[in-house]
């Protein structure tokens, strides 16, 4: 990666360009797939922080179930990383061959 670039470790996809940045509050960037936009919003909430993720700009007839599932997984990984700290590791799943 070069200076000023970032990624989520997803080969060939994910964030492209920061569109809006309000430190400690809001990050909006363009998304590689389907020319959409992702916004992360942080808000104080009863001594903690509330995270809202909005992925917008999809065609009206496009099902977003795959994105919903993907963001739930990603946000839950993020939650685990924050709660567990440096010792957190992604769960590795192996698929068994049937036959």
Throw out a few tags for this protein.
1 helix; Alpha-D-Glucose-1,6-Bisphosphate, Chain A, domain 4; 99 residues; globular; alpha+beta; single chain; 4 strands; four-stranded antiparallel beta sheet
Can you walk me through this structure?
The structure is a single chain. The protein is α+β, with helices and mostly antiparallel strands and 99 residues long. The protein has a domain at 15-83: Alpha-D-Glucose-1,6-Bisphosphate, Chain A, domain 4 (2-Layer Sandwich). The protein is 20% helix and 33% strand. The protein contains 1 helix and 4 strands. The chain has one helix at 65-84, and strands at residues 15-22, 26-31, 36-45, 48-56. A 4-stranded antiparallel beta sheet has the order 1-2-3-4, with no helix packed on it. A hairpin with a 2-residue loop joins strand 3 and strand 4. The longest helix has 20 residues, at 65-84. The chain starts with 14 loop residues before the first strand and ends in a 15-residue tail after the last helix. The mean pLDDT is 82.
- Cα gyration radius (Å): 16 Å
- Provide the CATH superfamily of one domain: START domain
Strand content: 25-35%
CATH architecture identity of one domain: 2-Layer Sandwich
CATH top level label of one domain? Alpha Beta
Helices and strands: which structural class? alpha+beta
Please mark out the parts with pLDDT under 50 across 5 or more consecutive residues, or reply none.
Answer: none
Describe the largest sheet: 4 strands, antiparallel
Strand adjacency order, main sheet: 1-2-3-4
Euclidean distance between termini CA atoms: 42 Å
Instruction: Please tally the helical runs, counting DSSP H or I stretches of 4 or more residues.
Output: 1
What is the overall shape?
Answer: globular
Mean pLDDT: 82
**Helix proportion range:** 10-25%
What is the number of strand segments?
A: 4
